[in-house]
Every structure is written in C-alpha cells, then in structure tokens.
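User: Let's play a game. I give you a shape written as tokens, and you guess the letters that built it. Ready? Here's round one.
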C-alpha cells in the first residue's frame, strides 16, 4: 500500500491545484464553491483538479452524478491513504 500511496502522493504533489483541493477535502467533504472560496483558486482550476483527482480514484462524488447543484466531494480511502502518506513524509506544508 505504501508504494501505491507514494505514487498517488507524487501525482498530487505535481499540481498546486490538486494539492489545494486535497488539503481542503482532507478537512471535510465540500462542494466546489466552498473549495474555491477556501483555497482562493479560480473555479476552473478547482473543477479541473477535482476531475483529475476523481479519475485517479482519490476523490469521489457523494451525491448522484446527475445532481447539478450541491455536488459534494470527499476523499476516497485511497485519497486518505495518500494524504496520510504525504503528512507522514513531510510533503505537506503546515
């Protein structure tokens, strides 16, 4: 599991926008508007990062896919493992 977490951590670390989204979702599930506000990132960057992280299995949508408003996202177990790996290996700024 550590090698998978290390691979995922490298992928996350490769983008400041993915890092920001992961950091925010590590706190609690959130909708894109909250992530945008809390990370001070453009909505397009938040949306792209969520899409990237979701396609890698690190983030999941908690509501039905066809729901347009209130699309709540959270870390998957794999995302949580990658974030923990990053914390344990001092890859996350405090």
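Assistant: Ready! My guess for every position:
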């Amino acid at each position: 599991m550590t090698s998978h977490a290390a691979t995922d951590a490298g992928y996350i670390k490769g983008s400041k926008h993915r890092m920001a989204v992961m950091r925010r979702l590590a706190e609690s599930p959130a909708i894109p508007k909250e992530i945008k506000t809390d990370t001070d990132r453009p909505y397009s960057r938040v949306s792209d990062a969520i899409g990237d992280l979701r396609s890698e299995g690190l983030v999941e949508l908690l509501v039905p896919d066809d729901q347009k408003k209130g699309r709540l996202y959270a870390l998957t177990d794999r995302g949580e493992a990658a974030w923990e790996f990053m914390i344990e290996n001092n890859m996350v700024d405090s």
